[in-house]
Automatic annotation (TrEMBL):
InterPro entries: aa-tRNA-synth_I_codon-bd_sub2 (IPR020751), aa-tRNA-synth_I_CS (IPR001412), aa_tRNA-synth_I_cd-bd_sf (IPR008925), Glu-tRNA-ligase_bac/mito (IPR004527), Glu/Gln-tRNA-synth (IPR000924), Glu/Gln-tRNA-synth_Ib_cat-dom (IPR020058), GluQ/Sye (IPR049940), GluRS_core (IPR033910). The lineage of its organism: Eukaryota, Viridiplantae, Streptophyta, Embryophyta, Tracheophyta. One of its GO terms (molecular function) is zinc ion binding. CDD domains: GluRS_core (cd00808). This is Glutamate--tRNA ligase, chloroplastic/mitochondrial. Its EC number is 6.1.1.17. It comes from Gossypium raimondii. Keywords: Aminoacyl-tRNA synthetase, ATP-binding, Chloroplast, Ligase, Mitochondrion, Nucleotide-binding, Plastid, Protein biosynthesis, Transit peptide. It catalyses: tRNA(Glu) + L-glutamate + ATP = L-glutamyl-tRNA(Glu) + AMP + diphosphate. Belongs to the class-I aminoacyl-tRNA synthetase family. Glutamate--tRNA ligase type 1 subfamily. PANTHER family: GLUTAMATE--TRNA LIGASE (PTHR43311), GLUTAMATE--TRNA LIGASE, MITOCHONDRIAL-RELATED (PTHR43311:SF2).
Length: 584
């Protein structure tokens, strides 16, 4: 596997030593060098997303996956998924499945990885232990690493001494210069040991980060670090380096919190003779208070947003804009448009603030961009599953979606929108401060004429003709009352819908009329039919409503209560009669 990669010159470290020593660290070599990297643009693009299956897929991880995906697709490269499950205590197969499910939901299909396979597998770190041990032994043989027999107590003592001297807590190098006899003696006793990497005592590492520009570290702040634990388990930085190298990863696009790891990984790359990939470290996603986004700020995982009714295309669009833009004012992108426009050079190195309000707005834009037939099916199935309707398709569903879609940003909003249309909170509206001017504008007279139109069958006849019939009837009704515009439509809206605001009134009333006739609304939906609404209007005490009295709301509630109570009594009397007939 290594041989396949060694001849792939996508980015190489160039050593600039003071005394031109070879890059094999023996005890007597002076360890002093500087490292720079250069990119070979002819190499095939291969990127990877490597989540740890220790929980749900965070939106920050999803954005990192997205940037890798977009970069690969825009360059005609490969997007590799690798599972970093070396944390045996916290990693679970359930978490892995959840991560895979979330990535698939977002539409970020991987070219190689779990469930897909590929030429560079296995794609779970837990299945690659033999390879890690092989490369660790290679480093031991070359002198780049050595066995360290220090106990935990000794290491803690070194840290305490460093703190007292106000020095970085780096390893003192006790076993770096041990004689072969000392090492053999500890091995014979069975003393546990780790593998430590020899780090030059002087020098620096410089890389050209594709997002952050030149980044450098001094090597004297690092100290010899562990690559294999005493239990034989490899350490994260060693695993990642071996994996990226043997999988021929050309570009490592990851979160900025991994930037400090680059120093250790670059040293391992060179020691193993592997070319080093290009690095791009993406900024953190911040909360509105500019702290790191966490659970205390609300939903943070992709699964949570899916369950809240967000669309995958909206999530992808919004996540792409967290730190990236195409240089225009455009904010609406499909996944194909993002692939076409994406450039790693336009990723901002400053933190991006996660704005849930903007995400909701963007979801609404994508929701309304869905073809109407698909949107109607999506919302219709939602209404049936939540128990609002008994059917998920048909003319009523289509009309309702058409009427309500502009007020729906999330699929779950459709429940509230339909429930509001079906409800009739007329008593709350009439007794509210906003409803007071309408009541005082001779609303009782409008109500009387409206009841007359209902009793004569004139109104329902017009509604049978649809929107044209409604418009013709309203025009005549306005002439009779000598009202037009707001003075006509606002009283009618309140009396027929029970609300001051809402979607188009004519379409709303027609839909309410159809709902009462077709029986598509579930009994538990709280639907008040037009017939029932007129019954409530007939019971209103307009004298009380026109008085500015504290007991006004109670009086209206009492009237409505008695009307509903009498209707319930009538229903139960009818039910009792039907039961008697069935017994006979």
């Amino acid at each position: 596997m290594a041989a396949l990669v060694a001849g792939t010159p996508w980015m190489r470290i160039r050593v600039i030593p003071e005394f031109a020593p070879p890059f094999i660290f023996r005890r007597h070599f002076r360890r002093n060098f500087s490292v720079r990297a250069s990119i070979d643009s002819d190499a095939p693009v291969r990127v990877r997303f490597a989540p740890s299956p220790t929980g749900n897929l965070h939106v920050g991880g999803a954005r990192t996956a997205l940037f890798n995906y977009l970069f690969a697709r825009s360059k005609g490269g490969k997007f590799v998924l690798r599972i970093e499950d070396t944390d045996l205590e916290r990693s679970t197969r359930e978490s892995e499945e959840a991560v895979l499910r979330d990535l698939a939901w977002l539409g970020l299909d991987w070219d190689e990885g779990p469930g897909v396979g590929g030429d560079y597998g296995p794609y779970r770190q837990s299945e690659r232990n033999a390879m890690y041990k092989q490369y660790a032994e290679k480093l031991l043989e070359s002198g780049h690493v050595y066995r360290c027999f220090c106990s935990n107590e000794e290491l803690e003592k070194m840290k305490e001494i460093a703190e007292l001297k106000k020095l970085p807590p780096v390893y003192s190098g006790k076993w770096a210069t041990a004689a072969d006899g000392e090492v053999e003696e500890e091995l014979a006793k069975g003393t546990p040991y780790t593998y430590r990497f020899r780090v030059p005592k002087e020098g620096s590492l410089k890389i050209n980060d594709l997002i952050r520009g030149e980044v450098s570290w001094k090597l004297d702040t690092l100290g010899d670090f562990v690559i294999m634990r005493s239990n034989g388990q490899p350490v994260y930085n060693f695993c990642v380096t071996v994996d990226d190298a043997t999988m021929a990863i050309s570009h490592v696009i990851r979160a900025e919190e991994h930037l400090p790891n680059t120093l250790r990984q670059a040293l391992i790359y060179k020691a193993l003779g592997f070319p080093m990939p290009s690095f791009a470290h993406v900024s953190l996603i911040l909360a509105p208070d500019r702290s790191k986004l966490s659970k205390r700020h609300g939903a943070t995982s992709v699964g949570q947003y899916r369950d809240m009714g967000y669309l995958p295309q909206a999530m992808v669009n919004y996540l792409a804009l967290l730190g990236w833009g195409d240089g225009t004012e455009n904010e609406f992108f499909t996944i194909d448009q993002l692939v076409e426009k994406f450039s790693i050079g336009r990723v901002n190195k400053s933190g991006a603030v996660f704005d849930s309000t903007k995400l909701r707005w963007m979801n609404g834009q994508h929701l309304r961009a869905i073809p109407f037939e698909e949107l109607s099916q999506l919302i219709g199935e939602r209404w049936k599953s939540t128990g609002l309707l008994t059917e998920s398709e048909g003319p009523f569903v289509e009309d309702a979606v058409q009427l309500l879609k502009d007020g729906i940003d999330l699929v779950t909003d459709s429940d509230t929108a339909l429930s509001s249309l079906l409800s009739y909170p007329v008593h709350a509206t009439l007794t509210s401060p906003e409803g007071r001017p309408i009541v005082e504008d001779k609303l009782s007279e409008v109500s009387a004429h409206l009841l007359a139109a209902y009793d004569s069958g004139e109104l329902f006849g017009a509604l049978e003709e649809g929107l044209a019939g409604w418009q013709k009837w309203v025009k005549g009704f306005g002439k009779t009352l000598k009202r037009k515009g707001k003075s006509l439509f606002m009283p009618l809206r309140v009396l027929l819908t029970g609300k001051l605001h809402g979607p188009d009134m004519g379409s709303s009333v027609i839909l309410i009329y159809k709902a009462g006739n077709h029986g598509i609304v579930s009994p538990q939906a709280g639907f008040v039919t037009l017939k029932e609404r007129f019954g409530i209007l007939r019971q209103l005490d307009w004298e009380a409503l026109n008085q500015d009295h504290p007991a006004l709301e109670s009086a209206v509630h009492l009237k409505v209560f008695f009307w509903q109570y009498n209707n319930c009594l009538s229903f139960f009397v009818l039910l009792k009669s039907l039961m008697r007939c069935s017994l006979v």
